[in-house]
Amino acid sequence: MRIFLAFLLALMATTSFAYTVKSIKFNGLVNLSEPVALRMLGFEAGDDVSDETIDKSIKKYFEQGYFEDVWVEIKDGELVYYFKEKPHISNIELKGWKENDSEAKESIVQIKVGSLYDEKKLEAAKKRIIDAINQEGKIDSVVEIEKEQLENGSIKVTFIVNEGEEIVIEKLKYSGVKGLESDSFDDVIANKEREFMGWLWGRNNGKMSVGDLEYDNLRIRDIYMQHGYLDIDVKEPFVKVNFDNYKADMSYQIQEGEVYSVSAITIEQEKHVIDDALVKEQIKLEVGKPFNVQTFREDSQRIKTLIADLSYAFVQVVPDLKKDKEKRLVEVVIKIIPGDKVKIRDVIISGNNRTLDRIIRRELYLGPGDMYSLTDLTDSRNALGRLGFFDGNTIEEKRVNNQTMDLIVKVKEAPTGNIQLGGGYGSYGGLLVSVAVDDRNIWGSGIDVGVKAERSELSSNYSFSISNPRLNDSDFSGNFSVYTSDFEYEDYTVKSDGLNMGLGHRFTRFISGHLGYTFSQNSYEIDEDANLTNINEYLFEDYTKSSVTISAKYDDTDDFYLPRKGIILSQSIENAGVGGEAKFIKSRTTFGAYKGLEEYVGFDLISRYKARVNYVKDTGFLPIAEKFYMGGIGSVRGYESYSLSPTTQVDPDATDGIRRYGGEYSATNSFELSFPLVPKAKMRLVTYLDWGYIGTTEESVGDYKVENLSRGGFGAGLEWFSPVGPIQLMFSKPLAEEEGDKTAVFEFTMGQKF
């Protein structure tokens, strides 16, 4: 009887709260479609459902994360679900920290405009902001979240950041250092002791970089490994912070061990693919000398390149150091696991919205069906960079199987159609403005077409040029240009009309040659009150020039506008006298060396050295306009363009009785350091020192001596890859300035390589 009663009560409990659903409706759905909502229920119209079943369906909807509230109403068998959706976030702001940094919003906040408001996600973003500030060496930071309901129902979220205090390292101690000088660690570690007057540029301010703390001990360990200390043990630093003044003391515990010398170097190939003697040629480690881990890394990379150039794309170079602790010797075993030879299956080009595929493919040294080569791959990347058509390029290696891979060439188009501007302001020439329209990659064809219109207070130059660096996609190049120009000197003006044409050929990946022809008609206009006393009058005779120029160039740089490695060397010889009145031989030599220093200094610092050497020999008639002049960007900054020249006396009684005579030889040197200023805006700071010498073989003109010149300049400038092309703004100070020199404190160019 008791069992029957219990069963009856249970049956009544389950049936008294059951409903027969005749229809199901949804009210307020936006982010979820009704068909999807119906499938999530687990029942349909006509079924009997309980309160428990309905509760489970409500929980399912909540789990989707779209809703603030969900409730139901049941009336006459009609089941209605009501939804109150979470509002959308229409605006996200940071206040007090990285306020205008869109990258920080994307990488740290990680909440996108248009997403649903979610308290948990906001709290997670808040934690990420605090962690990011901690990585900058600031502690006790506070982040508050401010929410504002807008009229359209969306939410504006503001993260109000109160940055904490920076920790300054007052003392840094090393315990156990015997074999090395602890000062050598300062070159590699990020967290250093504050120096006296640390706020000065170039001095260490001692600010802690929390993110680097876990790596600094490894950097110290690496320094020891470069001196043969293979048993070195460097503990993570102990940091003691005084929270009253946020100053810290740091200390490292170091156990050096002994110095190991190299007893032998052994090559072990999993399968023999190359003569061991060729491998050993790549090794700079020396038997009998202390082991150097940096040298070993470089040796391993050279060996890897050597084997990879034999088509073993997946080669591994595995080190094995066999230490003899008693004798303090180490046998270096280099294990080479070559894998299989790899063939290129396909080369896929992407990102080139403008440049034609074939323009890119002709610069690649690897194509479908070719055997893999690491050197060819590296040279292909650099060749694309030298085009100047792209902001950047990468070539990804996509493994298909052990014997096959695809190459994915990804490029980012750069503006190649530029309105080029140039100019400056000097004490003599006043304001100079030049304008040019040029497209180095017109219609994505790789052809360079330019129209220049340049005008200043002293000069004008109008020209049209067209050149194709790869005629019919071959190794031949061609160019043609016409121009008209005039330049006003102190009391005369030179006018020129001419044309240039030429044919070039690429002999190797880095060496090219060119044969060109130039014809020009040149005339002088002499001012009525000009005093040409003691100046050979024939120098100012109208003349024609017909010349042939042969030139060669070596260029293995990695980028057209902003190279970080490689050199450029060019030499040209011009022979004037193939017809025409002018007869001379002119030599021009240019050299540029570029080196990125990021691996040494920890940021994208670039050093540049540029030199020019010019010489001209009179073989019959050398007009004054064909001689050399210095000054301005590309020569000696701090002086007006072409204002530096050997001079001679014209009229000793005149206050301005000095005349530029033109140089027969000149040499200029420039050393530059380019610093990242605003990387996201592609803006850099450059400092420079220029020095040049210009002279002539003639010791006197008439009764007066010719004075040769040596001048220099230094300064700083801005290099900016603007949306309309590269821009340089240069502020200069002349060196060795003398009375009568024409100085220029400011110059700018646009559309030229740095």
What keyword list fits this structure?
754 residues, Ubiquitin-like (UB roll), 46% strand, disordered N terminus
Please tell me about this protein's structure:
This protein is an alpha+beta fold. The protein folds into 6 domains: 19-85, Ubiquitin-like (UB roll) (Roll); 89-162, membrane protein fhac (Ubiquitin-like (UB roll), Roll), CATH 3.10.20; 167-255, membrane protein fhac (Ubiquitin-like (UB roll)); 261-337, membrane protein fhac (Ubiquitin-like (UB roll), Roll); 343-413, Ubiquitin-like (UB roll), CATH 3.10.20; 417-750, Porin, CATH 2.40.160.50. It is built from 11 helices and 40 strands. A 16-stranded antiparallel barrel has the order 21-22-23-24-25-26-27-28-29-30-31-34-35-38-39-40.
Condensed summary:
The protein is of the alpha+beta class and 754 residues long.
Give the helices and strands, then pairings:
Elements (H helix, E strand, L loop, with lengths): L1 H14 L2 E3 L2 E5 L6 H8 L6 E3 H13 L3 E9 L2 E8 L3 E7 L6 H8 L9 H17 L2 E2 L2 E8 L5 E8 L2 E2 L1 E8 L34 H16 L7 E2 L3 E5 L4 E9 L5 E9 L6 H5 L12 H16 L7 E9 L4 E9 L5 E8 L6 H5 L12 H14 L2 E12 L2 E10 L3 E10 L3 E10 L8 E9 L2 E10 L7 E13 L3 E15 L4 E16 L16 E13 L9 E16 L2 E14 L1 H4 L4 E16 L25 E3 L8 E3 L4 E14 L4 E13 L4 E2 L2 E2 L3 E14 L2 E11 L8 E7 L4
What is the number of helices?
11
Largest sheet: 16 strands, antiparallel, barrel
- Terminal Cα span: 101 Å
* CATH class division of the largest domain: Mainly Beta
Largest sheet strand order: 21-22-23-24-25-26-27-28-29-30-31-34-35-38-39-40
